[in-house]
Amino acid sequence: MSSEDGIPEVLSADVAALVDTGGFKFSVYLVRRDGETEHGKLALLGGRKDPADKGRILATAKRETKEEGNIDVEEDTLEPLIVLDGHGRGDPRGVHRTSIVFATELLPHQHRDARAGDGASELLLIPLANVPLDEMAFDHARAILALRKKYG
Asked: Rounded to an integer, what distance in angstroms lies between the CA atom of residue 55 and that of residue 103?
């Protein structure tokens, strides 16, 4: 799909996979990007909607979390957090990308085999308060700020 200016429009899902580290303090899984775009920067788990998702953005979120971090999430635990609708701002790929960011609190069995997957050089579990906003890819720093507001 393309917008009026001919620039492709892309819908994606990103997931803030959170781990309660005790005392209502949370850490979040982030990937260090291995791809050409935003190489070396940190990002939430996620990616573009695929035809295999059958038009369901929750299916996209679940699939991408598994592909990028080998983390299993259930669709009914994915809670909408923020919509990132930068229309070119924050996304250097030359597309109008709209991303729905979901948050989910993981149980131990869901991330016991967590590891970097597609498009990631490493998978990191970082305390939410310590996520370096200036190292975030795209406009994912906005999602981290929304997480901090909600989860402290």
From this structure: 20
pLDDT band at 10 (very low <50, low <70, confident <90, very high): confident
Examine residue 43 and state whether it is found in any structural domain, yes or no.
yes
Mean confidence (pLDDT) of the chain: 90
CATH code of the domain in which 109 resides: 3.90.79.10
Whether 2 is in a domain gets the answer no
Q: Which domain holds residue 129?
A: 9-151
Say yes or no to pLDDT of 141 above 60: yes
